[in-house]
Amino acid sequence: MNATSQDLPLYSKKDQDREHTIDGSSSGLQPEEYRSSFRRDYARLIHSACFRRLSGKTQLFPNGESDFFRTRLTHSLEVAQVAKSIAIRLNSKDPHFAAENKKIKPEITEVAALAHDIGHPPFGHNGELALDEEMRDYGGFEGNAQTLRLLARVEKKNDPGLDVEAKLSTDDRIGLNLTYRTLAAVLKYDDEIPRRKDDRTRPGRIQKGYYRSEAELVKRIKNAVLPAGIKPRRFKTIECSIMDIADDIAYSTYDIEDSFKAGFTTPLSIIASDPELLDTIAQKVSEKIAETYPEADNKFAARDVSAILVEIFGGILRLGDDETASLSKKDVPDLYQHAIIAAKAFKWSKRISENGYYRNEVTSRLVGSFIRGVEVVEHDEYPYVPQLLNARLTLETFKKVEVLKTLAYENLIKSSRLKVAEFRGQEIVRDIFNALSQKGGLLLLPDDYRELHERFSLSEDKQRVICDFIAGMTDRYALDFYGRLRSSDAASIFQPL
Q1: Cβ–Cβ contacts within 10 Å for residue 380, how many?
Q2: Could you report the per-residue pLDDT of 162-184, keeping only the tens digit for each?
Q3: What is the set of domains in the chain, with CATH numbers?
Q4: Is it the case that residue 452 has pLDDT exceeding 80?
């Protein structure tokens, strides 16, 4: 660790005071002795409408299929617990955070994790693709960019001294008016998304970043969080990197658990994955290793994927004393031995898939080991700046997490059964957007969005209002709204929009 880093605290007074709103005007708020500004950020998020709506948004399996499967809300709660655990462990174990003024504030990682998915639209990734396509000439759509926009502009919070009418007339809305440090913790991608994306070489690929409408805010976030004169090529705070890891850990384990319950896969079928799937996973994990660990050898083959899957799920292949004794007898035919091993593996694979105790044991073991596999590295340009420390998984832990993540994506998210449901969602989102964008479409908007739409003169701003409205929908609300537009059995006109 660079000795000069001892001179810089992890948090400055700018991070902790809330004397001004995010646009620099007086908010009328007074410091509170009984809680920090970060804890107030937590309260504002928990009580927000955008957070509540996560309960109606799809995580892996379509919302409403079963009460067992995770929603975006329960996923976010799990990510928050993992993120907070990582922060607490690093404060205890890592020398970068030994001094009291260097310790991570776990509540910031918790808030960032709770908020990380609020920008995702209905119907998951396919809803995101549909909105990005419709917004391609106006800066696109991307879930993380929408999260920052929701927190900093769209979500409604009226602070003392805030002139709501004045803010709306100039679109100086302040969202939940969170601290800069909390907003920095959700800023995963340090690039402005271009207004036009005609230069894309890979159709259907979402460009990560933030919208042009939040570009000035991002500059203010950096000025508030970083020491004077520090201008890194890539900006990502230690809290944001922890949140990102926690999301990967939750995604890589709990989506697999849901797939066991749903009957989409089993531990035995995972171990026996097709060679083509293993090759695909190996190639994608190799690319990730090269990107995240440039100093490491990124050679990663199908046999390495198999070895990791056997390490994680190979318990189903272990024989008990009775089976071992049977196989140790003389003159036992090879076919009989194979049959005993196969029967044992099938039995335990079925038990793990169908029994919640065993599923929970697998995921708990994985999550615990992954949390213990988090390390901290210094920024390559500014190793002495604590705000830019980067949490990452150790290489061996990273390989396991990425194998499970890629397996879930290739084997589950891309499965035909899920794709049919997602395709329908994509068409619904696109149809709603087109209906609201056509001449007179603003009359279909709820009153508050309609008022905003009418205040703006630029097409980009008007289209962004429509995009904000659709992105905030739950899966069920999107279906209901679509039904009002297209179905002969639509909801009553007395049901509020």
Answers
A1: 12
A2: 555 555 555 668 889 899 999 99
A3: 3-246+374-396 (1.10.3210.10), 419-486 (no CATH)
A4: yes
